[in-house]
Amino acid sequence: MSDPLIRPDLVTSSAGPFLAAAELTQSEARATSSHSHPRGQLMGALSGLVSVGLDRQTWVVPAIHAIWIPPHFVHSVRSYGPFSGWSVFIAEHRCAPLPREPRAIRTTPLLREAVRRVATWPGVELDPSQTRIAEVIIDELAASRAESLDLPRPDDPRLVRLTDALASDLSDNRRLEDWAAWAGLAPRTLSRRFVAETGLTFAQWRQQARLLRALERVADAVPVTTIALELGYDNVSAFIDMFRRAMGTTPGRYLAQESRGESAS
């Protein structure tokens, strides 16, 4: 069982300050089992990487990003290796203007600095100056744009079996037709059901799964060549091209930016 990140009443009760925050730095992986709480939670990474299991999706939160978890959403958390990050907990009655569904966002320097300031407070009612800083966090979250850092999970048992098999070996390069035969589906049926249940084509889902796994492995400082082979790429260049298109930079530069707490944009 991991030690509490923040005083429990600042997570489970709307009494006290309407917004509280805590920072965490650790040298080893950390895991929190499925749970929920009345307050909304904005969870951000400064260095390293954390994944969040939420509903039927897995969300990956690399450095300079955060995930918004509205009140009462059941979720689990896992970090990978050394990690530095933060969480903000917002009282339910202040969550009305915020996104109603979970959302991954790219954080701004203003948001990160405001969180850093709030994390030093003692967890009592906010004075007017503190309230203004807390309102900045809420405004920044309300104005944020969603980032594609999630991997939707289908409902159809045949597709669940297929995606579980694919996720367990992302180096498997079998075509959609081969996977359809393996799952006992017609290729057109598989293609149609995939889009209907995940919003992604089969190829898009596999690429998103590979990207999220790549972010995990990059955060663990695994060599790029090793990651490329694990994900089924014929050569390192093809993997780097995919990573650059998705993240706006190469894996090596991304890791360097992440360690310095910089944005890739």
Q: Topology, pairings included?
A:
Layout: H1 9-12, E1 19-26, E2 31-35, E3 40-54, E4 57-62, E5 65-69, E6 75-90, E7 103-106, H2 109-118, H3 128-142, E8 150-152, H4 157-168, H5 176-183, H6 187-198, H7 202-219, H8 224-230, H9 236-247, H10 251-260
Antiparallel strand pairs: 1-6, 2-6, 3-4, 3-5, 3-6, 4-8, 5-7
Helix pairs in contact: 2-3, 5-6, 8-9
Protein name: HTH-type transcriptional regulator NimR
Organism: Paraburkholderia metrosideri
Pfam family, one: HTH_18
Can you count the beta strands? 8
Number of helices: 10
The Cα radius of gyration reads 20 Å
In CATH terms, what is the architecture of the largest domain?
A: Sandwich
Mean pLDDT, all residues: 89
**What name goes with the CATH superfamily of the largest domain?**
Jelly Rolls
Low-confidence stretches: none
Distance between the termini: 37 Å
Number of domains as seen in the coordinates: 2
Oligomer: single chain
The assigned structural class equals alpha+beta
- CATH uppermost class of the largest domain: Mainly Beta
Pfam family, one: HTH_18
Domain HTH araC/xylS-type: 160-257
InterPro entries: Homeodomain-like_sf, HTH_AraC, HTH_AraC-typ_CS, RmlC-like_jellyroll, RmlC_Cupin_sf, Tscrpt_reg_AraC-type_HTH
Protein name: HTH-type transcriptional regulator NimR
